[in-house]
Amino acid sequence: MDGSKIVAMDDAGAVDQEIDGGEFACPAFIDSHVHFLLGGRALAHAHLAGVSSREEFERVIRAKHEALPDNVWLEASGWDQGNWQKNSKPNASMHTQDHALKNSGHGMPDQTWLATCGNRPAIAWRMDQHVCVVNRAALNIIAQRHDLSRDPVGGTIARDAAGNPTGLLLEQAAWTLAIPCVPEPNSQALRAMAHAAARHLHAHGIATVGSMEYARDIIATLSPLRHELNIRILATILDRQWPIDWSLGECVAADDALRIIGFKSFIDGTLGSRTARMLEPYCDAPESLGMFVELAESGKLSDWLREGLSRGWSMSMHAIGDAALRAALNAADAAEKSGVRARESLRIEHGQTAHPIDIARCEDRWLSMQPLHKYFDAGPALPRLGAARMDRFFCFKQFHEAGARLAFGSDWPIVEPDCLQAMQTAIAGATAAGAVTEHRSSLDAEIALQAFTNQAAKCLRVGDRCGTLKVGLAADIVSLDRDPLTNDWSNHKPNIRFTCVAGERIHAPG
Ligand SMILES: [Zn+2]
Questions:
Q1: What separation in angstroms does the CA of 502 have from each of 32, 207, 231, 430, 478?
Q2: Which domains does the chain have, with CATH numbers?
Q3: 375-422: per-residue pLDDT in tens?
Q4: Beta strands 74-79 and 46-47: pairing type?
Q5: Could you tell me the distance, in angstroms and rounded to a whole number, from the CA of residue 95 to the centre of ligand 1?
Q6: Residue 170 backbone phi and psi in degrees, to 5
Q7: For a disulfide at 407, which of 6, 32, 207, 298, Cβ 3.0-4.6 Å?
Q8: What pTM, to 2 d.p., does this model score?
Q9: Distance of CA 129 from the midpoint of ligand 1 (Å)
Q10: How far is the CA of 410 from the centre of ligand 1 (A)?
Q11: What is the pLDDT of residues 68-111, one digit of tens each?
């Protein structure tokens, strides 16, 4: 290595390589889908991941509240109502309420769960970041800016029997009403969060990320820090006011450390919140198909896609439900009919459920998938989809066999950017429930590793810079204690020995 690039190798082109006794060098992992700054910010939140009861939820909130200075918001994230619902038996009245996310039944938290914060405004995000609960103090602040008697387009304000907001806000109600009211950390705090995010990713063997970011954050925080973070960031712009200001894609200069590659749009929500748009109703909410949101709801998705592609951007579409995937493919077909090339420049994000007809339509298209979402969602997905539809859930292998191009990521901070645990799920089918689900959708180790290295690099348009151990490419390396290609993934996963970025050891555990 000459510092930043690989200058010589005994086995050029390898995906992984044994360097000495039991140590394996792979290209450093590439996480195709993170929220880098949000991740850095979430590292400072109260952590509600894995919390399995209201008491535990309140205990975490109280501890954070007591540790915070006065006059700042309490921010928390990671809760999942499935974790406490499985501990309480559903009853008939709950079931009849269940279909409507508009009411506060079925175990979703409300403002009283945050009562310990008193007059301190508090917001706690569900693990998918599509739903949040705020306390009374925060609701009062939001009500000063917005009329809470009506739901915003594409969002829901949950209400009690008397019609008053419970504090639970879904989709656009969370994003457009609550988020703008939460004070931004100052620039010094944001810089510290960006550094923390980079260190966290290095610890997981990651040297390159595809990151979903707002233009203002790229300009104010990421661009000034680009040569300090030791991480290559390929940013996708989240700003999505229609009509799109395409010049945002050029809001900062591009170099090897930071480059804006495209724009993102949301087609639907999530399975956990039953807002993912399905072809057939939810089994546990028989009158609901979920929802289309934003440009998919307003009918502007194809225009957005065609315009972005024709300008040369890599266009990313969030599609979790099988109907959302179909809408993404229909928009892609429409764009291609109008003459723009969509094959290499279109990323379907998530693809968590897919009808077989649509899987076949994915040939040559990028599927940017997050195996750890399967790990955590397999349990909750079963009542949503029903056993008969589970063969549409996380079809890694079926996509691969249909000729789709797979790039893997985490969606951090939704889940940890743990590429090895993600590979274990993709290869061995492991899920949080412990059971091996849908083994027929599992991948060979080599395909899974490529989805986190050279394929991810191509998806993010940096295949000529990183993602392969090859002379002339970046000396970004992760050293593992086992060969990932021969490892018995059903029993254990390799451990990271160290992470090397541009030829320098950045992270060594312990
Ligand atoms: Zn995401």
A1: 19, 9, 9, 33, 11
A2: 17-37+190-507 (3.20.20.140), 73-181 (3.10.310)
A3: 888 888 999 999 999 999 999 999 999 999 999 999 999 899 999 999
A4: parallel
A5: 30
A6: -115, 140
A7: 32
A8: 0.87
A9: 9
A10: 8
A11: 999 899 999 999 998 888 766 443 333 333 333 443 346 899 99
